[in-house]
């Protein structure tokens, strides 16, 4: 089966398999790793599902919760390679952009970790009004179920970007004097996120796209973290690049960072690295996904009604 067909089945069909009843889910630990703060993770996760209704309903977190979740997650993320290997089956998710209610609805519809394994392609913050809630829930899931939740970095998980496009303002307006401290804690966590994932050795995933400087996947895998605000090079390109079917090769991106790449680049890259599919996010798709004519590259976007443009 072509991997794109497998992806279509993952994303577009309802699964008939029975889900694990909540009472039988393996309970997450009450605390983890070396955080100096104690946190009851089961109770913490549950409170995100207590009030699910349309609109913006900010969740109050204590500084103890911020420190525990972010520090624990940072320790885990820093232990992962910059390119990680992920086993199937896995549900791959595109941009979230602070749309917390949609994130919750996705978990309720498809299944919460560890019932399902998830690979997120980045851009959790900015644009939407509940970026803090998205990050706290996803980081807590990562802490509790590290092999069921994988979090890649997007271009908005860079300080110079999320200070401009909403996350900084959300932290300051919601947390006041402590906002800058919490924002900086998140940035340290972002700097340790992997940039790429290889699923079943044949499906390469990242937030943005390809780089003309990428000669070996080991170049990414062995990049030392933390990576602070990448401005150029392979890591920057993988966060920012876009496919462009109007060209064959490379051109400078109109975004002002990274490159645009055409069909010849995609074909050559897949053949050179033994890949069957490239999965990325980074661009809004009216149907939530878009595939190139060759079916060798799939774009996912998981923020419904993003800027009121699509369902």
TrEMBL record:
What general EC class does the enzyme of this chain belong to?
hydrolase
InterPro entries, alphabetized: Calcineurin-like_PHP (IPR004843), Metallo-depent_PP-like (IPR029052), PP1_catalytic_subunit (IPR050341), Ser/Thr-sp_prot-phosphatase (IPR006186)
State the Gene Ontology terms under molecular function: protein serine/threonine phosphatase activity
Domain (Serine/threonine specific protein phosphatases): give its ranges. Answer: 152-157
Q: Which domain of life is it from?
A: Eukaryota
Its family remark reads: Belongs to the PPP phosphatase family.
User: Mind telling me what this protein is named?
Assistant: Serine/threonine-protein phosphatase
């Amino acid at each position: 089966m072509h991997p794109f067909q497998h992806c279509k089945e993952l994303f577009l069909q309802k699964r008939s398999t029975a889900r694990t009843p909540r009472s039988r889910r393996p309970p997450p630990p009450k605390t983890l790793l070396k955080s100096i703060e104690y946190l009851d993770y089961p109770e913490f996760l549950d409170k995100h599902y207590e009030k699910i209704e349309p609109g913006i309903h900010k969740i109050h977190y204590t500084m103890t919760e911020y420190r525990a979740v972010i520090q624990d997650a940072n320790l885990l993320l820093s232990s992962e390679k910059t390119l990680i290997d992920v086993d199937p089956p896995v549900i791959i998710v595109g941009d979230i952009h602070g749309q917390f209610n949609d994130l919750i609805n996705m978990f309720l519809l498809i299944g919460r970790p560890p019932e399902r394994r998830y690979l997120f392609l980045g851009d959790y913050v900015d644009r939407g009004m509940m970026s803090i809630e998205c990050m706290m829930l996803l980081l807590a899931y990562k802490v509790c179920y590290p092999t069921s939740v994988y979090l890649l970095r997007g271009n908005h998980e860079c300080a110079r970007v999320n200070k401009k496009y909403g996350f900084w303002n959300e932290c300051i307006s919601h947390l006041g004097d402590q906002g800058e401290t919490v924002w900086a804690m998140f940035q340290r966590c972002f700097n340790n996120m992997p940039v790429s994932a290889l699923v079943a050795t044949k499906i390469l995933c990242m937030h943005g796209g390809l780089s003309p400087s990428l000669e070996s996947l080991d170049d990414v895998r062995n990049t030392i973290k933390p990576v602070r605000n990448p401005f150029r090079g392979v890591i920057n390109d993988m966060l920012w690049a876009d496919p462009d079917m109007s060209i064959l090769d490379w051109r400078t991106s109109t975004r002002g960072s990274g490159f645009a790449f055409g069909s010849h680049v995609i074909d050559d890259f897949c053949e050179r690295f033994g890949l069957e599919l490239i999965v990325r996010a980074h661009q809004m798709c009216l149907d939530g996904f878009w595939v190139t004519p060759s079916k060798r590259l799939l774009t996912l976007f998981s923020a419904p009604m993003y800027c009121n443009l699509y369902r």
